[in-house]
Amino acid sequence: MLAFALNPGFLLIVAALILLAAPRNARPIIMGVAALAAIWLMLGGQFGVRSAMAQMGLPVVLLNLDALNRIFGIAMLIALVIIAIYSSARRNRYEDAAIMLLAGGAVSTLFVGDLVSFVAAAELAALGAAWVVFVSPLEGANRAGVRLLVWHGLEGLLFLVGVALHLSAHQGNSTLDRLDIHVIGDAFIFAALLVRVGAPIAHVWLKDAIAHASATGAPALSAFTTMLGVYALARLFPAEPLLMPIGAAMSVIGVAMAIGSDDLRRSAAYGLMAVTGVCVMLVGFGSPLALAAAEGHAFAGIVAFVALQMALGAVVTRIGNAYAANMSGLAPAMPLSVALILFSGLAVASVPGAATYATHAVALEATAQWDLRGVWTIIAAAPAALFICFALRPALTAHRVTENARARPPGETPFPVLLGTAIAAFFCFSVGIAPGWLYGLMPTELTFQPFDADQLPPHLELLGAAGAAYIVCWALGLAPRERPVALLDLDSFYRGPVAATARWSGVLALRIYGAGQVAIAATGEAVGRGLARFSRACDRPYRQRFISFAQFMMIAVILVLFIIGRQL
Amino acid sequence: MTKPISPSRGGIAGMLLLFCVAGGGAGLAFDFLSDSGQDFWILQAPGMRALIGVAVAALLLVAAHILRLLLGRKVNEGEPRAGLRP
Fold first, then answer.
1. Of the candidates A76, A346, A264, the residue with the CA atom closest to the CA atom of residue A84
2. What CA–CA distance (Å, rounded) separates A499 from A305?
3. What is the average pLDDT score of chain A?
4. What is the pLDDT of residues B25-69, one digit of tens each?
5. Which of A77, A96, A117, A390 lies at 20 to 30 Å from A222 by C-alpha?
């Protein structure tokens, strides 16, 4: 096969520029063709460094293909093809370009082979992500975009400091290789990657951005942001024990916030955080099987969450939001969309037959081999929580017919929206039913049977028991009633009390500054008046004895100083 | 005086419950039948996944109530939230 040594992500960046000038009907085609061409470039290339040069004494490796970046690249590019189909229902050239820039930056980051290019491409993806939020037509999107930019600015700063220290410590060696968290520069890079994966405290940017992105922007943000961080951690910090508690905290916080949130897109963002946490835990564990499971689970998670965000985006397109409180009785009006939400939710929840199930089984096996009880329990329990949050809860809510819901006129979202979502869900299940293809993509050779008797029955048992318990509680009225409620997170703290304190501090500082200015002006005026009085008095030395004495003394001092100066 | 119409659940709850009970029951039965006895800890033993599932459901419900109680802020009609501009 003919192969070019070109980073596939660069093709997407060029396509982003073309999209700005392309007519509406051509834009989805350009997006899809660019993504397919990038897949062709990637699969046609041979493993190893293919494009390298030197700039300012530093090696710049623009293309370094291997099994690790190939599996992430395939997932992201497939997601981009599906997003291209999905996006053809609406007209916003800036959003199309923003999504392509985000995808181009993310895919470029996967395939570069040196730290400087890695940081540059990752920050380009961050700018693309912020642009995706800025162009959203949703209420509050501009402010959410600024907040996202602040988080990514912090990440970029950490990256820059880390890379600078790393380069100075390693005599300019910038190859993308395993880093050591105990070295200060590498620790900065590690901190930057924690921001990117949405580790606790830094997790707020993800749900904020996704909740304010458009129906098309949210799947793009799900696919090209946090999972890029998982790739980078697998590349730079495999088997780093600190990642295990961080990943565990992400999973627990993610599912807890997902069930409490009224906005289902925000809830799905928390779900993505939980799945990313599982991947981070597996990267932290670091055995070959665990790393393979992390990469496979990231692959499956990318497509599954793209499908879920697309399905929820269909509701946003129709009724303006995806709040559970507003979704009562949606099923009769939008049966296909609700069915797609259910299927996507099942795909996210690792139901047997879904791609996430195939990789989840590998993850359980990897942790069981090394007797990691805590990690095993969290990974085993996560699908039950996701099943309740993203399959049962939306389905039960959408089928709950109330008086208000009866007035809702029937009407589905445009066909491309449904088609894109259906393709994403179909892809999840087709890969899950025959997972050999996915296992073949993993860097570790894997002969694993996820439908064996020791894998499938316990998983069915888990989901069945969790689902039955939840439905019974829901029927008994023990589940929280769906009502318009905004769940406060850590960002509410810094956007609320901390921001108010900062505002008041600013006002106080301005007042103090103003008072200082007035005091200086008054003092200056008084001193000026005094000097003027003094100079007037000097003009008339005969009026006051003291002034004439002072004048005499001043002249005497000047004369003495002059004489001393001459003598020296 | 007319009786207020109680909210209908569209029958989906019963169907989902049936699927869950059937899947869970089959899984439980096969789990006991195919037990190899090589479990690395107690939660891997046959039947324990069902326990994990029920515990997760209960914990999620408790978490949802507690989170909404502590962190939930009621949104009034017309208050701006993330949604399409009117």
1. A76
2. 33
3. 89
4. 999 999 888 877 677 777 778 889 999 999 999 999 999 999 988
5. A117
CB-based contact, A385 to chain B, within 8 Å:
yes
User: Is the confidence at residue A198, as pLDDT, over 60?
Assistant: yes
Instruction: Flag whether residue A252 sits within 8 Å of chain B, measured between CB atoms.
Output: no
Query: By the CB < 8 Å criterion, does B62 face chain A?
Result: no
Instruction: Determine the 3-state secondary structure of A445 from DSSP.
Output: coil
Of A396, A469, A486, the CB nearest to B54: A469
How far the first Cα of chain B sits from its last, in Å, is 38
Closest CA of chain A from B38, distance in Å? 11
| Contact of A432 with A451, CB cutoff 8 Å | no
pTM: 0.87
Q: Determine the Cα–Cα distance for residues A250 and A273; give it in Å rounded to an integer.
A: 6
pLDDT digits (tens, 9 = 90+) for A432-457: 999 988 998 888 777 788 888 888 99
Quick: pLDDT tens for A289-301.
999 999 999 999 9
Considering only alpha carbons, which residue of chain B is nearest residue A252?
A: B60
Q: Rounded to the nearest 10 degrees, how much is the dihedral formed by the CA atoms of A39, A43, A49, A53?
A: -40
**Among A234, A321, A315, A323, CA closest to A279:** A234
Contacts of B16 in chain A (CB under 8 A): 392, 395-396, 467, 471
Mean pLDDT on A388-401 = 89
